[in-house]
Design goal:
This protein has 273 residues and is mostly helical. It starts with a helix and ends with a helix.
Length: 273
């Protein structure tokens, strides 16, 4: 009887699965599950940490001195922001592929029938993406400092610099999630990898804006990765900040607004299969 009484009390104290406390608790538990799984996945670690560091080292060796002669500034203040953003985008592709695998294996459907908050799965994925992008950014910045990268605008600007890839990456992750829950994983990888490459090669982080032909400079200057690179360059080295920061926020929030509803609807549909 004592055992039955203790069990009844615990059930009485447990919040309903649709309540806000249950959402927070279940989101945190599933976030830990995703971070643990990504930490054990070699592809995710490769895309998030190793490839960006190797890319940064290659750019610094091959084109760093030529860009410094052309622009008069260290190439690291363009290539480091660009590589942190590329690392954020590459990691979202790996997690998007993993989401497709979980959908095909029926794991999302199993979570759907468990007594957990319905919104915790998607909320945990967004929170885990933010944690992954922030940790990847810190590692890339640490590697860049070994190459000579420094912050010249104070600790507050450095703090903002670290969080800008998180905003940009979460916007991109919302788009990738919306695609991953509706299409095959091979389509996702090919399409997003092509988009990421185009954004990188036609950005002000790859080479200075003046190195591009005049007819394409307006596109390069205003595309989402260029404005994010220019914002991070201003936060680290100095220069005009208001315009690129405003465009970065507009691009990021615009992507979240456009793709949030399809991502939520697709995630719910994939979980009910």
């Amino acid at each position: 009887m004592a055992t039955l009484a203790e069990h009844t009390d615990a059930d009485t104290l447990r919040p309903p699965e649709s309540s806000a406390p249950a959402l927070l608790r279940h989101t945190w538990i599933q976030t830990q599950r995703l971070l643990l799984r990504w930490g054990r996945d070699p592809i995710t670690l490769l895309e998030t940490l190793i490839v960006p560091c190797l890319l940064l080292m290659m750019l610094n060796i091959v084109v760093g001195s030529q860009i410094q002669k052309f622009s008069g500034h260290s190439a690291l203040y363009g290539s480091v922001p660009m590589v942190t953003l590329v690392g954020a985008l590459s990691g979202t592709v790996a997690s998007g592929v993993m989401l497709g695998r979980e959908r095909d294996a029926g794991l999302l459907a199993r979570f759907w029938v468990l007594p957990v908050h319905r919104g915790s799965g998607l909320a945990a994925r967004i929170l885990a993406e933010g944690c992954r992008i922030f940790c990847g950014t810190v590692v890339i910045i640490g590697f860049a400092m070994l190459l000579g990268f420094r912050f010249h605008q104070g600790p507050l600007a450095a703090f903002a610099f670290l969080w800008l890839p998180v905003l940009f990456g979460l916007a991109f992750a919302t788009m990738v999630t919306a695609i991953a829950v509706f299409t095959a994983k091979s389509t996702l990888v090919e399409g997003v990898a092509l988009l990421s490459s185009l954004l990188m090669f036609f950005s002000t982080g790859f080479v200075p804006l003046g190195a591009y032909p005049n007819w394409i400079q307006p596109v390069v200057r205003n595309q989402p990765m260029s404005v994010a690179v220019d914002t991070m360059r201003s936060l680290a080295e100095g220069g005009a900040l208001a315009r690129p920061l405003m465009l970065t926020i507009i691009w990021s929030l615009g992507m979240i607004i456009v793709f949030a509803v399809p991502a939520a609807y697709g995630y719910r549909r994939a979980s009910r299969r």
